[in-house]
Write a structure and sequence with these properties.
By secondary structure, the protein is an alpha/beta fold. The protein contains 13 helices and 20 strands. The strands form four sheets. It has a six-stranded mixed β-sheet with strand order 1-2-3-4-5-6. It has a six-stranded mixed β-sheet with strand order 7-8-9-10-13-20. Helix 5 runs parallel beside helix 12 (381-391). The model has no long low-confidence stretch (mean pLDDT 94). Bound molecules: zinc ion (ZN).
Length: 423
């Protein structure tokens, strides 16, 4: 009655699919798209018709984990965080993906989407029990899942790190590592052991050489930098909530206003409500404002826009921009105050030698002399080693979401644990 575990596309970053089944029940964890420019282009065909899947659990809202949800048949239940649902709905509305908006709305209304809550077990067919625990990641509510199936315990980390705003808490003058605490107090509750650890390893490859830079480092850096540079264009992902918060808080501390488009402002409202529920105002984005739009239509009245632009010149700003004409019109209009442009995304998109190279984005960054300040959404190898040691999987360590599973052998973990790495 031992469960069967299958991982598809585990040897690439993004698009990993995990299938766990017993004789009677089958669940899938994550069903996302390959990342743009992923080395392995073709996505696997998943035979939904014959696989008889009971439930799909999503770890978080990034496209490489959730992007293919439209392929999932209606009779398969979906499980995800509430923020994941709301963020995804906002994205699909913004890109006018009407079919996806309709599907999500319908599923929400007919009860086939269930929101995962911290440490609340979900029982599938009285057979597999899945419990989600929040982890620190660049997405707001990212979960790792403890799966109790066929007499063994499997821990699936999803994407994680410990250098974001939710990676540590400071209590009683002590630093608490959130994820290691959850492993200690929840996962290992009452002596429960983990048999199989399925863990991401994004940073095990060449990315391991990147400068190690926490969200807090970023916030502190920006707070200082904005004292001297009060006119800032920022290129950042709309769903990278921690980095958005770092820049927002740094701007606020310097009396500068954050400007963003209406779609990002909508996401800010989702993050604010969720953050407050969890007792933090880090994600408030309270006085973020709509970025001005200069209409180039003949006879258009831009009076109000020019007033806003004057306010921006006077009071300073952090404006979230993108590689589109309407942003460039605003940026060019503000060129008289010599704004700086910060690029807070992975450098790979600007590197012509990579498949992930984005020419339009690269040209845009070059035109405005952008410089990079970026925090990775993924754990550095040192923290992966700490997690493996803390979980202490009894049977197997299964690296996924990595181009360098071999790198796990070089981690600072015991020889005994190294012997359990799946090869
Ligand atoms: Zn992710």
């Amino acid at each position: 009655m031992k469960p069967e575990i299958k991982v598809y596309q585990g040897d690439q970053i993004g698009g990993c699919i995990t299938v766990i089944s017993t004789d009677n029940t089958k669940i899938v964890i994550d069903f996302g798209e390959n990342l743009p420019g992923a080395e392995k282009e073709s996505e696997i065909e998943f035979d939904w018709e014959h696989e008889n899947v009971d439930a799909v659990f999503f770890t978080h809202y990034h496209g490489d984990h959730i992007g293919r949800f439209m392929e999932i048949p209606d009779d398969v239940d979906l499980y995800m965080g509430e923020v994941t649902f709301k963020v995804m709905l906002n994205i699909r509305r913004a890109i006018k993906d009407d079919a996806a908006v309709a599907k999500l709305t319908e599923r929400f209304e007919n009860g086939s989407i269930t929101f995962v809550e911290r440490a609340v077990p979900i029982c599938i067919n009285d057979d597999i029990v899945v419990t989600g625990y929040e982890v620190d990641h660049s997405a707001y509510d990212a979960f790792m899942y403890l799966v109790e199936a066929g007499g063994i315990n499997i821990l699936h980390t999803g994407d994680f790190r410990d250098h974001g705003h939710r990676g540590h808490t400071f209590k009683d003058g002590k630093d608490h590592n959130t994820m290691l605490d959850v492993i200690k107090y929840y996962v290992h509750k009452n002596g429960r052991k983990v048999d199989v650890l399925i863990t991401e390893g994004t940073m095990m490859g060449e990315r391991a050489d990147e400068e190690k830079f926490s969200e807090k480092d970023l916030l502190v850096w920006a707070r200082d930098y904005f004292k001297e540079h009060r006119h800032i264009f920022l290129k950042v992902s709309s769903t990278n909530v921690d980095t958005l918060a770092s820049f927002y808080q740094a701007a606020k501390a310097n009396g500068m206003t954050m400007y963003a488009n209406s779609y990002i402002l909508k996401q800010f409202r989702v993050y604010r409500v969720a953050g407050r529920k969890h007792g933090t105002r880090m994600y408030d984005f309270w006085n973020a404002k709509q970025i001005p739009f200069i209409s180039d239509r003949e006879g258009a009245d831009n009076t109000e826009t020019y007033q806003t632009l004057d306010d921006m010149r006077k009071n300073g700003f952090v404006a979230i921009v993108g590689e589109y004409d309407h942003y460039e019109r605003v940026m060019d209009e503000l060129s008289d105050v010599n704004p700086e442009m910060i690029y807070s995304m992975w450098s790979g998109y600007l590197d012509p030698k990579r498949d992930a190279y984005d020419e339009k984005l690269a040209k845009f960054c070059e035109k405005y002399h952008a410089f990079q300040k970026h925090t990775s959404g993924h754990a550095y190898p040192e923290f992966i080693a700490q997690v493996i040691t803390a979980v202490d999987p009894q049977q197997m360590i299964w690296p996924i979401h990595t181009e360098n599973a071999e790198g796990f052998m070089k981690l600072d973990i015991s020889e005994e644990l190294k012997g359990r790495i799946k090869r």
